[in-house]
Amino acid sequence: MAKKKAVLSIDGEIQINYKWSVGKAGDRFFTELRDHKKIMGTKCRQCGRILVPPRIFCEECFVEDMEWVEVEPRGSLLTFGESYFSTDGKRLKEPWMLGIVRLKGSNGGLIHFIRESRPEDLKIGMPVEAVFKSKPEGNIMDILYFRPANN
Ligand SMILES: [Zn+2]
């Protein structure tokens, strides 16, 4: 077997700034979150599913027959896990606990931070509630995190 030669490389970083439209559904979702601390979903008038995050069409019925509905800022934990790396790939001193939360009565789920709980106390299906930022800005971090709830 031939000896492998190390590839010559140079470490570096590329900073990329970008901006993209949040779209029609995202615009309403983030505006309501920022201005009223409301979590909105879209309900399909055909099948009745409530989609959170909201979409302007139902991919089950293949129609754009949707109406906006407010959902409760609480739901259940679908799954969770720890991350030892930040979104830019850097090792974290304290791991992030992340989960997918299905808000009450809705379909889908929001990926978010889970806090105010020890990892060993988290359970799939447990009730959780949103903790909102005091001065919202119109992005998903207007929900600071979800925490265990009694409901
Ligand atoms: Zn539908």
Low-confidence stretches: none
What is the number of independent domains?
Answer: 1
Strand content: 35-45%
**SSE-based structural type:** mainly beta
**Beta-strand segment tally:** 8
Number of helices: 1
Q: Helix share of residues?
A: under 10%
Biggest pleated sheet: 5 strands, antiparallel
Spatial ordering of strands, largest sheet: 6-5-4-7-8
Q: How would you spell out the order of helices and strands?
A: HEEEEEEEE
Our measurement of the CA-to-CA distance between the termini, rounded to an integer number of angstroms, reads 63 Å
Rg estimate, integer Å: 19 Å
Bound compounds, each kind once, are: zinc ion
- Shape label: globular
Average pLDDT = 94
Description:
- There is one protein chain.
- By secondary structure, the protein is mainly beta.
- It has one domain (23-148).
- It contains 1 helix and 8 strands; from the N terminus they run H-E-E-E-E-E-E-E-E.
- The strands form 2 sheets. A 5-stranded antiparallel beta sheet has the order 6-5-4-7-8, with no helix packed on it.
- The protein binds zinc ion.
- Residues 44, 46-47, 49, 58, 60-61 line the site of zinc ion (ZN).
- Zinc ion binds next to loops.
Write the layout of secondary structure elements.
Layout: H1 23-36, E1 39-44, E2 50-51, E3 66-71, E4 74-85, E5 91-103, E6 110-113, E7 127-132, E8 143-148
Antiparallel strand pairs: 1-2, 1-3, 4-5, 4-7, 5-6, 7-8
The chain binds zinc ion (ZN).
Task: Name the features.
151 residues, 5-stranded antiparallel β-sheet, 3-stranded antiparallel β-sheet, 8 strands, 9% helix, 36% strand, globular, binds zinc ion
